[in-house]
Design brief:
Helix content is 17%, strand content 31%. It contains six helices and 22 strands. A hairpin with a 5-residue loop joins strand 21 and strand 22. The longest helix has 17 residues. The N terminus is likely disordered.
């Protein structure tokens, strides 16, 4: 009707790629009987949606590295890329360096920062991009790379540290100065003792356990105990006084130690971690080496015997940041040469118990792995579940082999039943 004004509201939605624009218009003006066209738009509002922050799944420090993993943003918009940022504290100050960033394509959900300074705190954060632009960063996460850490999610780092720490330790000559004939305990070169400690701390690092040191007050009696084991060609944690080369100091050390015959130094440490044969089904030697509360050990070596003092002194409590589980072989990438002939274990430094736990495994191609679970025995370090694969993985192949482990029926440290699953990839 002529002379009357009308107000009409129009709304249109147009999708452009992954971005939706919504425009609304209000037309004000006279309407005529022969025309229903609106007058020019009085106002238009458009809103573009950028991605929400991607959820950071893990921030893992290693030796001069930090590995960051994340998921896709919760918003429904299609992601066209990610940006990962990193910065570090400046020396002993409380100021930070500028952010360093790297842009990655949408299919990538992991980035490793390398060549970082060990012992320096770093911050990382992640943002996502779509056709509308970059979304906001998520909360910053902090991590400190350390020289002893091994990021088991980085294949190259696992292989390199195996060669640099263990293989080199195994190559250091013994140079024992003692003799069985004269019941002389003797000693070893300082390099050999350091190599033994390096092997211990390498094994501990694979399970996220902090490094330990050696003490002379334990080294000396351990040396006498090693002499007794070699002189009698036998092992005993309670050697009788009638043994050749018997000493009270050696007797005391034998009762506080892991003992090996036929291997010494770093080679003995590898033997303890394998824990082969009848009588070692509880993997007690392994458990004492990776025990989180360990602080100081002692070692004594002859030509082919070792005494590794492991029974104290310990920390009153497990250190902060102690992992909930320690697996052997460890989760992630694991050196094939250290695979313990099928004798696998899972340890709980936080006090979970495995009395009613059950283990299932699948191997390459998802095939079930036949295994036998041993009865649990506590009081050897932390609570541990040990099982034996009916057929141990082959050490002959150089190809990667991945196994998935599921442990159910674990009683948590605060009660209740929990489960734990992880993957192990054997690498050469």
């Amino acid at each position: 009707m002529a002379g009357r004004s009308s107000t009409r509201r129009y709304q249109v939605a147009a999708a452009l790629g992954a971005v939706t624009f919504v425009a609304s218009a209000i037309a004000v003006g006279p309407a005529t009987a022969d025309s229903h066209r609106p007058a020019p738009t009085a106002g238009t509002v458009a809103r573009a949606v950028t991605p929400s922050p991607p959820p950071v799944r893990s921030v893992t420090p290693g030796t001069a590295t930090i590995r960051v993993t994340w998921g896709d943003p919760g918003s429904a918009t299609a992601v066209t890329g990610f940006r990962v940022a990193e910065r570090a504290l400046r020396g002993s100050t409380s100021t930070w360096t500028a952010w360093h960033t790297v842009d990655l394509p949408p299919g990538v959900h992991e980035h490793v920062w390398t060549s970082l300074t060990n012992g320096v705190r770093h911050e990382v954060k992640v943002a996502a991009q779509n056709l509308s632009g970059w979304g906001a960063y998520g909360a910053t996460r902090r991590a400190t790379p350390l020289s002893w850490l091994i990021d088991r999610g980085i294949r190259r780092q696992v292989r390199d540290t195996y060669r640099q720490r263990l293989v080199r330790a195994l190559a250091v000559p013994n140079k024992w100065t003692g003799s069985v004939g004269g019941c002389k305990a003797g000693t070893n070169s300082s390099q050999y003792r350091k190599a033994t400690l390096s092997a211990v701390n390498y094994m501990r690092a694979l399970t996220d356990a902090r490094p330990v040191t050696l003490a002379a007050r334990f080294n000396r009696p351990a040396q006498k105990a090693a002499l007794m084991m070699q002189a009698n060609d036998s092992l005993s944690h309670d050697p009788p006084p009638g043994w050749k080369c018997f000493s009270q100091a050696g007797h005391r050390a034998a009762g506080h130690s892991n003992l090996a015959l036929g291997a010494a130094g770093a080679q003995a440490i590898s033997l303890y971690m394998s824990d082969p044969g009848s009588g070692n089904e509880i993997a007690g030697h392994r458990r004492w080496i990776i025990y989180e509360r360990q602080k100081v050990m002692g070692t004594g070596d002859t030509g082919f015997a070792n005494d590794l003092w492991v029974l104290g002194p310990w920390s009153a409590h497990a250190p902060s940041g102690t992992p909930p589980y320690q697996a052997w072989p460890n989760s992630g990438f694991f050196p094939r040469a250290l695979e313990p002939d099928g004798r696998w274990s899972l340890t709980s430094p936080r006090g979970a118990s495995f009395g009613s736990a059950k283990v299932t495994m699948t191997g390459p191609g998802g095939k079930p792995v036949a295994l036998k679970t041993y009865p649990t025995v506590d009081y050897y370090g932390d609570n541990t579940l040990v099982w034996q694969l009916r057929t141990a993985p082959s050490h002959a192949t150089s190809a990667d082999r991945t196994y998935t482990v599921h442990v159910t029926g674990i009683r948590g440290p605060h009660g209740g039943r929990v489960s734990h699953a992880y993957r192990v990839t054997l690498v050469s």
